[in-house]
Amino acid sequence: MTAEHKTRILILGGGFAGLHAAMHLDRTLARSSNVEITLINRDNFFLFTPMLHEVAASDLDLSNIVNPVRKLLKNTSFFAGEVEAIDLERRLVKVSHGFNHHHHELPYDHLVIGLGSITNFFNLPGLEKRALTMKSLGDAIHLRNRLIAHLEEADTECAADLRRPLLTFVVAGGGFAGVETIAGINDFVREATHFYGNLRENMLRIVLVHPGEFILPELGEKLGRYTERKLTERGVEILVNTKVIGVTEEAVELSSGEKIQSKALIWTAGTSPNPVLDSLPCVKEHGRLKVDEMLRVPDWPGVWALGDCALVPDIKTGKFHPPTAQHALREGKTLAANIIACVRGGVLKPFSFSTIGQLAAIGRRTGVANIFGINFSGFLAWWMWRTIYLSKLPRFEKKLRVALDWTLDLLFTKDLVQFQTFRAPAISHIASGISEPVVSRDILETVS
What we know:
Strand order of the largest sheet: 5-2-1-9-22
Distance between the termini: 63 Å
Mean pLDDT: 93
CATH architecture of the largest domain: 3-Layer(bba) Sandwich
Protein backbone atom coordinates (compact mmCIF):
# COMPACT_ATOMS: atom_id res chain seq x y z
CA MET A 1 0.00 0.00 0.00
CA THR A 2 1.41 3.43 -0.92
CA ALA A 3 2.33 6.08 1.61
CA GLU A 4 -0.64 8.20 0.51
CA HIS A 5 -3.02 5.53 1.77
CA LYS A 6 -1.43 5.06 5.16
CA THR A 7 -3.52 5.72 8.24
CA ARG A 8 -1.85 8.70 9.89
CA ILE A 9 -2.03 8.96 13.68
CA LEU A 10 -0.71 12.07 15.42
CA ILE A 11 -0.17 12.10 19.18
CA LEU A 12 0.26 15.55 20.72
CA GLY A 13 2.14 15.60 24.01
CA GLY A 14 4.69 13.27 25.57
CA GLY A 15 3.52 13.23 29.18
CA PHE A 16 2.14 10.21 31.00
CA ALA A 17 -1.01 10.07 28.86
CA GLY A 18 0.41 10.74 25.41
CA LEU A 19 3.54 8.68 25.85
CA HIS A 20 1.75 5.59 27.17
CA ALA A 21 -0.73 5.77 24.30
CA ALA A 22 2.24 5.93 21.92
CA MET A 23 4.03 3.06 23.66
CA HIS A 24 1.03 0.74 23.37
CA LEU A 25 0.52 1.66 19.73
CA ASP A 26 4.25 1.28 19.11
CA ARG A 27 4.11 -2.37 20.17
CA THR A 28 1.00 -3.12 18.13
CA LEU A 29 -0.41 -0.93 15.36
CA ALA A 30 2.87 0.80 14.51
CA ARG A 31 4.24 -2.50 13.21
CA SER A 32 1.74 -2.41 10.34
CA SER A 33 3.10 -1.12 7.05
CA ASN A 34 -0.08 0.81 6.31
CA VAL A 35 -0.04 2.84 9.55
CA GLU A 36 2.13 5.86 10.32
CA ILE A 37 2.29 7.10 13.91
CA THR A 38 4.01 10.31 15.02
CA LEU A 39 4.47 11.63 18.54
CA ILE A 40 4.93 15.41 18.79
CA ASN A 41 6.47 16.90 21.91
CA ARG A 42 8.48 20.01 22.79
CA ASP A 43 11.12 18.02 24.71
CA ASN A 44 12.80 14.94 23.28
CA PHE A 45 12.40 13.12 26.58
CA PHE A 46 9.73 11.85 28.95
CA LEU A 47 9.92 13.48 32.38
CA PHE A 48 8.97 11.36 35.39
CA THR A 49 7.35 14.20 37.32
CA PRO A 50 6.72 12.38 40.66
CA MET A 51 10.49 12.53 41.28
CA LEU A 52 10.95 16.14 40.14
CA HIS A 53 11.26 17.53 43.66
CA GLU A 54 14.17 15.13 44.31
CA VAL A 55 16.18 16.81 41.55
CA ALA A 56 15.51 20.22 43.10
CA ALA A 57 16.59 18.88 46.51
CA SER A 58 19.77 17.24 45.12
CA ASP A 59 18.59 13.72 45.96
CA LEU A 60 18.74 12.56 42.33
CA ASP A 61 20.90 13.36 39.34
CA LEU A 62 18.94 15.48 36.88
CA SER A 63 19.29 13.04 33.96
CA ASN A 64 18.04 10.00 35.84
CA ILE A 65 14.35 10.95 35.87
CA VAL A 66 14.16 11.54 32.12
CA ASN A 67 13.98 9.00 29.31
CA PRO A 68 14.79 9.76 25.66
CA VAL A 69 11.60 9.30 23.65
CA ARG A 70 13.53 7.77 20.76
CA LYS A 71 14.69 4.95 23.05
CA LEU A 72 11.15 4.27 24.24
CA LEU A 73 9.54 4.09 20.79
CA LYS A 74 10.97 1.71 18.19
CA ASN A 75 8.35 1.89 15.42
CA THR A 76 6.93 5.38 15.97
CA SER A 77 8.21 8.62 14.45
CA PHE A 78 9.11 11.44 16.80
CA PHE A 79 8.84 15.16 16.04
CA ALA A 80 10.56 17.54 18.47
CA GLY A 81 8.65 20.78 18.20
CA GLU A 82 5.87 23.04 19.40
CA VAL A 83 2.19 22.53 18.62
CA GLU A 84 1.10 25.96 17.39
CA ALA A 85 -2.51 25.27 16.41
CA ILE A 86 -4.99 22.51 15.60
CA ASP A 87 -7.28 22.83 12.57
CA LEU A 88 -10.07 20.30 13.10
CA GLU A 89 -11.94 21.32 9.96
CA ARG A 90 -8.97 20.64 7.68
CA ARG A 91 -7.63 17.79 9.86
CA LEU A 92 -4.24 19.44 10.22
CA VAL A 93 -1.88 20.21 13.10
CA LYS A 94 0.39 23.24 12.75
CA VAL A 95 3.80 22.76 14.35
CA SER A 96 7.12 24.58 14.51
CA HIS A 97 10.63 23.41 15.25
CA GLY A 98 14.30 24.29 15.14
CA PHE A 99 16.29 27.43 15.86
CA ASN A 100 14.31 29.43 13.29
CA HIS A 101 10.88 28.03 14.24
CA HIS A 102 10.33 26.41 10.88
CA HIS A 103 6.62 25.67 10.37
CA HIS A 104 4.85 22.55 9.11
CA GLU A 105 1.27 21.41 8.64
CA LEU A 106 0.84 17.74 9.49
CA PRO A 107 -2.33 15.92 8.31
CA TYR A 108 -3.98 13.20 10.35
CA ASP A 109 -6.66 10.52 10.26
CA HIS A 110 -6.63 10.09 14.03
CA LEU A 111 -5.55 12.85 16.40
CA VAL A 112 -4.71 12.20 20.07
CA ILE A 113 -4.64 15.39 22.17
CA GLY A 114 -2.60 14.96 25.34
CA LEU A 115 -1.09 18.41 25.74
CA GLY A 116 -1.36 18.48 29.52
CA SER A 117 -1.47 21.64 31.58
CA ILE A 118 0.67 24.69 32.29
CA THR A 119 1.21 26.86 35.36
CA ASN A 120 -1.49 29.44 36.06
CA PHE A 121 -0.60 32.56 38.05
CA PHE A 122 -4.23 33.82 38.08
CA ASN A 123 -3.10 37.36 37.17
CA LEU A 124 -1.72 37.89 40.68
CA PRO A 125 0.63 40.89 40.87
CA GLY A 126 4.30 40.08 40.35
CA LEU A 127 3.98 36.30 40.13
CA GLU A 128 4.63 35.80 36.43
CA LYS A 129 7.82 37.85 36.67
CA ARG A 130 9.19 36.69 40.02
CA ALA A 131 7.73 33.33 41.11
CA LEU A 132 9.56 30.04 40.63
CA THR A 133 7.61 27.04 39.36
CA MET A 134 7.88 23.23 39.53
CA LYS A 135 6.48 21.82 36.28
CA SER A 136 9.52 20.95 34.19
CA LEU A 137 13.05 19.62 34.52
CA GLY A 138 14.28 23.15 33.83
CA ASP A 139 12.15 24.40 36.73
CA ALA A 140 13.73 21.90 39.13
CA ILE A 141 17.26 22.77 38.00
CA HIS A 142 16.50 26.49 38.23
CA LEU A 143 15.08 26.09 41.74
CA ARG A 144 18.14 24.14 42.89
CA ASN A 145 20.45 26.78 41.40
CA ARG A 146 18.43 29.52 43.07
CA LEU A 147 18.56 27.87 46.50
CA ILE A 148 22.34 27.52 46.29
CA ALA A 149 22.74 31.07 44.95
CA HIS A 150 20.83 32.40 47.97
CA LEU A 151 23.07 30.47 50.35
CA GLU A 152 26.22 31.68 48.60
CA GLU A 153 25.06 35.29 48.66
CA ALA A 154 23.85 35.16 52.26
CA ASP A 155 27.22 33.75 53.37
CA THR A 156 29.08 36.90 52.29
CA GLU A 157 29.79 39.61 54.84
CA CYS A 158 28.43 42.38 52.61
CA ALA A 159 25.03 40.63 52.47
CA ALA A 160 24.61 40.40 56.24
CA ASP A 161 21.70 42.85 56.20
CA LEU A 162 19.93 40.87 53.46
CA ARG A 163 20.24 37.45 55.04
CA ARG A 164 16.68 37.28 56.29
CA PRO A 165 14.95 37.66 52.90
CA LEU A 166 17.66 35.56 51.20
CA LEU A 167 17.16 32.71 53.66
CA THR A 168 13.36 32.84 53.67
CA PHE A 169 11.70 30.48 51.20
CA VAL A 170 7.95 30.46 50.59
CA VAL A 171 6.02 27.70 48.82
CA ALA A 172 2.44 28.45 47.73
CA GLY A 173 0.13 25.45 47.52
CA GLY A 174 -0.33 22.56 49.94
CA GLY A 175 -1.11 19.82 47.45
CA PHE A 176 1.26 17.01 46.48
CA ALA A 177 3.63 19.22 44.48
CA GLY A 178 3.85 21.91 47.15
CA VAL A 179 4.30 19.57 50.10
CA GLU A 180 6.91 17.39 48.42
CA THR A 181 8.76 20.47 47.18
CA ILE A 182 8.91 22.19 50.55
CA ALA A 183 9.86 18.97 52.33
CA GLY A 184 12.72 18.43 49.89
CA ILE A 185 14.10 21.96 49.95
CA ASN A 186 13.75 22.16 53.74
CA ASP A 187 15.99 19.12 54.14
CA PHE A 188 18.38 20.42 51.49
CA VAL A 189 18.98 23.94 52.79
CA ARG A 190 19.15 22.88 56.45
CA GLU A 191 21.85 20.35 55.65
CA ALA A 192 23.63 22.82 53.37
CA THR A 193 24.00 25.57 55.99
CA HIS A 194 26.64 23.48 57.82
CA PHE A 195 29.02 24.08 54.88
CA TYR A 196 28.71 27.88 55.09
CA GLY A 197 30.82 29.54 57.75
CA ASN A 198 28.57 32.58 58.29
CA LEU A 199 25.23 30.77 58.24
CA ARG A 200 23.31 28.94 60.94
CA GLU A 201 20.29 26.72 60.59
CA ASN A 202 18.22 29.01 62.84
CA MET A 203 18.61 31.77 60.25
CA LEU A 204 16.38 29.85 57.84
CA ARG A 205 12.67 30.42 57.48
CA ILE A 206 10.68 27.95 55.37
CA VAL A 207 6.97 28.75 54.90
CA LEU A 208 4.17 26.76 53.28
CA VAL A 209 1.03 28.75 52.38
CA HIS A 210 -2.18 26.81 51.74
CA PRO A 211 -5.72 28.12 51.11
CA GLY A 212 -7.49 25.14 52.70
CA GLU A 213 -8.00 24.01 56.28
CA PHE A 214 -5.25 21.37 56.07
CA ILE A 215 -2.58 20.39 53.60
CA LEU A 216 -2.70 17.35 51.30
CA PRO A 217 -6.50 17.42 51.12
CA GLU A 218 -6.39 14.61 48.52
CA LEU A 219 -5.26 12.23 51.29
CA GLY A 220 -7.80 13.32 53.88
CA GLU A 221 -7.59 15.29 57.10
CA LYS A 222 -5.86 12.61 59.21
CA LEU A 223 -2.82 12.30 56.94
CA GLY A 224 -2.90 16.04 56.23
CA ARG A 225 -2.65 16.83 59.93
CA TYR A 226 0.09 14.22 60.37
CA THR A 227 2.08 15.86 57.58
CA GLU A 228 1.60 19.30 59.13
CA ARG A 229 2.90 18.01 62.46
CA LYS A 230 5.97 16.36 60.93
CA LEU A 231 6.90 19.37 58.82
CA THR A 232 6.42 21.73 61.76
CA GLU A 233 8.74 19.59 63.88
CA ARG A 234 11.38 20.03 61.16
CA GLY A 235 11.13 23.80 61.14
CA VAL A 236 8.54 24.45 58.42
CA GLU A 237 5.92 27.12 59.13
CA ILE A 238 2.50 26.17 57.77
CA LEU A 239 -0.08 28.87 57.14
CA VAL A 240 -3.51 27.40 56.35
CA ASN A 241 -6.63 29.27 55.23
CA THR A 242 -4.21 31.72 53.62
CA LYS A 243 -3.46 32.68 50.03
CA VAL A 244 -0.59 34.41 48.28
CA ILE A 245 -2.06 37.54 46.68
CA GLY A 246 1.08 39.07 45.23
CA VAL A 247 4.85 39.23 45.29
CA THR A 248 7.33 42.07 45.04
CA GLU A 249 11.11 42.07 44.78
CA GLU A 250 11.32 42.14 48.57
CA ALA A 251 8.24 40.38 49.95
CA VAL A 252 5.45 37.86 49.49
CA GLU A 253 2.02 39.34 50.23
CA LEU A 254 -0.61 37.17 51.91
CA SER A 255 -4.39 37.38 52.16
CA SER A 256 -4.02 37.70 55.94
CA GLY A 257 -2.30 41.04 55.44
CA GLU A 258 1.11 39.70 56.40
CA LYS A 259 4.12 40.43 54.21
CA ILE A 260 6.90 37.86 54.38
CA GLN A 261 10.31 39.33 53.59
CA SER A 262 11.55 36.85 51.01
CA LYS A 263 13.29 36.76 47.66
CA ALA A 264 12.09 33.26 46.76
CA LEU A 265 8.47 32.25 46.13
CA ILE A 266 7.85 28.78 44.68
CA TRP A 267 4.39 28.61 43.09
CA THR A 268 2.61 25.22 42.95
CA ALA A 269 -0.91 26.50 43.55
CA GLY A 270 -2.53 26.42 40.13
CA THR A 271 -2.54 24.99 36.62
CA SER A 272 -4.62 25.42 33.48
CA PRO A 273 -5.01 23.31 30.34
CA ASN A 274 -2.67 24.09 27.45
CA PRO A 275 -3.82 27.35 25.78
CA VAL A 276 -3.64 25.70 22.34
CA LEU A 277 -7.03 24.19 23.23
CA ASP A 278 -8.70 27.59 23.64
CA SER A 279 -9.42 28.01 19.94
CA LEU A 280 -10.85 24.53 19.38
CA PRO A 281 -14.59 24.45 18.56
CA CYS A 282 -15.21 21.64 21.04
CA VAL A 283 -17.22 21.32 24.22
CA LYS A 284 -14.99 22.40 27.10
CA GLU A 285 -15.27 23.03 30.81
CA HIS A 286 -12.70 25.25 32.54
CA GLY A 287 -10.57 24.90 29.45
CA ARG A 288 -10.50 21.08 29.44
CA LEU A 289 -11.94 19.08 26.55
CA LYS A 290 -15.01 17.02 27.36
CA VAL A 291 -14.75 13.50 25.96
CA ASP A 292 -17.03 10.48 26.08
CA GLU A 293 -16.26 7.30 27.99
CA MET A 294 -14.34 5.99 24.95
CA LEU A 295 -12.06 9.09 25.12
CA ARG A 296 -13.48 10.47 21.85
CA VAL A 297 -14.08 14.19 21.35
CA PRO A 298 -17.80 14.46 20.48
CA ASP A 299 -18.76 15.70 16.99
CA TRP A 300 -15.21 15.31 15.66
CA PRO A 301 -14.61 11.79 14.30
CA GLY A 302 -11.03 10.59 14.71
CA VAL A 303 -10.23 13.11 17.44
CA TRP A 304 -9.37 11.82 20.93
CA ALA A 305 -8.23 13.48 24.15
CA LEU A 306 -6.83 12.28 27.46
CA GLY A 307 -4.75 13.31 30.47
CA ASP A 308 -4.76 16.69 32.20
CA CYS A 309 -6.33 18.51 29.25
CA ALA A 310 -9.40 16.23 29.10
CA LEU A 311 -12.47 15.71 31.25
CA VAL A 312 -12.98 11.95 31.23
CA PRO A 313 -16.35 10.79 32.60
CA ASP A 314 -16.32 8.18 35.35
CA ILE A 315 -19.12 5.77 34.44
CA LYS A 316 -19.16 4.42 38.01
CA THR A 317 -19.66 7.69 39.85
CA GLY A 318 -21.12 9.98 37.22
CA LYS A 319 -18.31 12.47 37.87
CA PHE A 320 -14.93 12.87 36.15
CA HIS A 321 -11.68 11.01 36.61
CA PRO A 322 -8.99 13.01 38.46
CA PRO A 323 -6.02 14.30 36.40
CA THR A 324 -3.41 12.05 38.02
CA ALA A 325 -0.55 10.06 36.51
CA GLN A 326 -2.05 6.68 37.37
CA HIS A 327 -5.22 7.58 35.49
CA ALA A 328 -3.32 9.14 32.59
CA LEU A 329 -1.18 6.11 31.80
CA ARG A 330 -4.23 3.82 31.88
CA GLU A 331 -6.17 6.24 29.71
CA GLY A 332 -3.31 5.94 27.24
CA LYS A 333 -3.66 2.16 27.13
CA THR A 334 -7.43 2.31 26.67
CA LEU A 335 -7.20 4.97 23.97
CA ALA A 336 -4.58 2.96 22.08
CA ALA A 337 -6.84 -0.11 22.17
CA ASN A 338 -9.78 1.92 20.86
CA ILE A 339 -7.74 3.36 17.98
CA ILE A 340 -6.65 -0.17 17.09
CA ALA A 341 -10.31 -1.21 17.12
CA CYS A 342 -11.17 1.68 14.78
CA VAL A 343 -8.37 0.88 12.33
CA ARG A 344 -8.61 -2.91 12.32
CA GLY A 345 -12.26 -3.28 13.12
CA GLY A 346 -13.42 -4.12 16.60
CA VAL A 347 -15.43 -3.03 19.59
CA LEU A 348 -14.46 0.12 21.48
CA LYS A 349 -14.20 -0.17 25.25
CA PRO A 350 -15.05 2.54 27.77
CA PHE A 351 -12.36 3.78 30.12
CA SER A 352 -12.92 2.51 33.64
CA PHE A 353 -10.48 2.76 36.50
CA SER A 354 -10.61 3.47 40.22
CA THR A 355 -7.79 5.15 42.08
CA ILE A 356 -5.53 2.56 43.69
CA GLY A 357 -3.91 4.96 46.08
CA GLN A 358 -1.97 8.17 46.51
CA LEU A 359 1.41 8.76 48.11
CA ALA A 360 3.63 11.67 49.11
CA ALA A 361 7.20 11.87 50.36
CA ILE A 362 7.54 14.46 53.14
CA GLY A 363 11.29 14.39 53.78
CA ARG A 364 13.71 12.57 56.07
CA ARG A 365 12.61 9.11 54.96
CA THR A 366 9.04 9.81 55.94
CA GLY A 367 5.92 9.62 53.83
CA VAL A 368 2.15 9.45 53.82
CA ALA A 369 -0.02 7.19 51.71
CA ASN A 370 -3.54 5.96 51.22
CA ILE A 371 -3.66 2.59 49.43
CA PHE A 372 -7.04 0.94 48.80
CA GLY A 373 -8.53 3.18 51.48
CA ILE A 374 -5.94 2.28 54.12
CA ASN A 375 -3.75 5.01 55.58
CA PHE A 376 0.01 4.61 55.99
CA SER A 377 2.54 7.05 57.41
CA GLY A 378 6.15 7.28 58.47
CA PHE A 379 8.99 5.13 57.15
CA LEU A 380 6.67 2.48 55.68
CA ALA A 381 4.82 5.02 53.56
CA TRP A 382 8.15 6.50 52.41
CA TRP A 383 9.40 3.03 51.44
CA MET A 384 6.15 2.39 49.57
CA TRP A 385 6.54 5.72 47.74
CA ARG A 386 10.02 4.84 46.55
CA THR A 387 9.17 1.24 45.68
CA ILE A 388 6.01 2.03 43.71
CA TYR A 389 7.42 4.98 41.78
CA LEU A 390 10.65 3.16 41.03
CA SER A 391 8.62 0.34 39.50
CA LYS A 392 6.74 2.84 37.30
CA LEU A 393 9.88 4.56 36.01
CA PRO A 394 10.45 3.47 32.38
CA ARG A 395 13.51 1.44 31.37
CA PHE A 396 15.69 -0.74 33.58
CA GLU A 397 18.69 1.54 33.05
CA LYS A 398 16.94 4.47 34.71
CA LYS A 399 15.59 2.31 37.52
CA LEU A 400 19.12 1.16 38.29
CA ARG A 401 20.55 4.68 38.19
CA VAL A 402 17.85 6.03 40.53
CA ALA A 403 18.30 3.09 42.93
CA LEU A 404 22.05 3.78 42.96
CA ASP A 405 21.47 7.50 43.63
CA TRP A 406 19.18 6.67 46.52
CA THR A 407 21.73 4.24 47.96
CA LEU A 408 24.54 6.81 47.76
CA ASP A 409 22.22 9.36 49.37
CA LEU A 410 22.23 7.19 52.49
CA LEU A 411 26.02 7.41 52.69
CA PHE A 412 26.93 10.93 51.57
CA THR A 413 25.70 14.50 51.96
CA LYS A 414 23.86 16.31 49.19
CA ASP A 415 25.79 18.08 46.44
CA LEU A 416 25.89 21.88 46.51
CA VAL A 417 26.67 22.23 42.81
CA GLN A 418 24.91 24.76 40.58
CA PHE A 419 24.23 23.50 37.06
CA GLN A 420 24.70 26.73 35.13
CA THR A 421 24.40 26.87 31.35
CA PHE A 422 26.55 29.95 30.80
CA ARG A 423 29.32 29.81 28.22
CA ALA A 424 32.88 29.89 29.50
CA PRO A 425 34.57 33.34 29.46
CA ALA A 426 36.35 34.19 26.21
CA ILE A 427 38.21 37.10 24.72
CA SER A 428 38.90 38.36 21.21
CA HIS A 429 42.26 40.01 20.44
CA ILE A 430 43.63 41.65 17.33
CA ALA A 431 45.48 39.00 15.34
CA SER A 432 48.90 40.59 15.72
CA GLY A 433 50.57 39.91 19.01
CA ILE A 434 48.79 36.61 19.62
CA SER A 435 51.05 33.69 20.21
CA GLU A 436 50.51 30.09 21.08
CA PRO A 437 50.48 29.43 24.82
CA VAL A 438 53.83 28.23 26.11
CA VAL A 439 53.75 25.07 28.19
CA SER A 440 56.77 24.11 30.23
CA ARG A 441 58.44 20.93 29.03
CA ASP A 442 59.14 20.04 32.64
CA ILE A 443 55.43 20.14 33.41
CA LEU A 444 54.65 17.87 30.47
CA GLU A 445 57.26 15.42 31.59
CA THR A 446 55.90 15.47 35.12
CA VAL A 447 52.34 14.84 33.91
CA SER A 448 53.45 12.04 31.63
